[in-house]
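Human:
Class, as today's exercise, you are to examine the entry below, and be ready to discuss the fold:
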Amino acid sequence: MALQLVFVTGMSGAGKSTALKMLEDIGFFCIDNLPIPLIGKFVQLTADGEESKITQVAMGVDVRSGEKLADLRSVLDELSEGGVDYKILFLDADGSTLVKRYKETRRSHPLARNGRIEAGIAEERQCLAFLKNESDYILDTSQLLTRELRAELERIFVHNENFKSLMITVLSFGFKYGIPADADLVFDVRFLPNPYYIPELRAQTGKDAPVHDFVMKYDISRVFIEKLVDLIRFLIPNYIEEGKNQLVISVGCTGGKHRSVTLAEELFDRLNGGEGYGLRIEHRDIDKDSLRKKV
């Protein structure tokens, strides 16, 4: 049986260690931070060993290799010339997310050198640029929950499904709580009829049928969602061609409970099942009004 070899790399704090543990759980033999000069020898011994029962290997490589990381390019070329098939999985996240994660864990960035985390992140991006450019899979974990990362890895490496390079998040929110900082596209639906002023609907949300039906019974709502879906479907292949990995579509109303939730759910349902992208939905502020009243 041919050796399945995956190099797991990417930004520090983006989830490489977590991904390696998940790959180990699904049957991969995992090695982290093996010295670059030993990679070729290890792969050769594993692939050629008649008695070896190892058929899946995941190797973690990153900036901890220091100056030797630059030698990885020649190692990969030698593997290709030797007929070894490999894949590169790159874990990425936006700068603000990485900074936040480092501050929460109180760990220092490997390239910060007692300086600012942002400087270390910028230097790391430069060091890893050649690997990202050659990656087969790029996963942006800025918005991914741990279970969503596991599901994505299982989809790729267990179920052998086609990799979807663009992850789309449909996010509802309330303008009175602020526009999401990570939003790529923001749509304001405060012009739609508001269920808040219907006493029996006020305590419900856009996930409840009465609220959903109230909002969507109006022509203006139906026309808007049709035009919005057409726009997003036009944009998606262009974003994929550009190489974008993460798209956050934010739909906002006043409190983030009724209209924005309804339209976000509608958008999610109509985009779900499309090819070339993954899809998730999140309602940021759906419970905030009730929480404030309790306090």
Observations:
- The first strand starts at residue 4 and ends at 10.
- The radius of gyration is 23 Å.
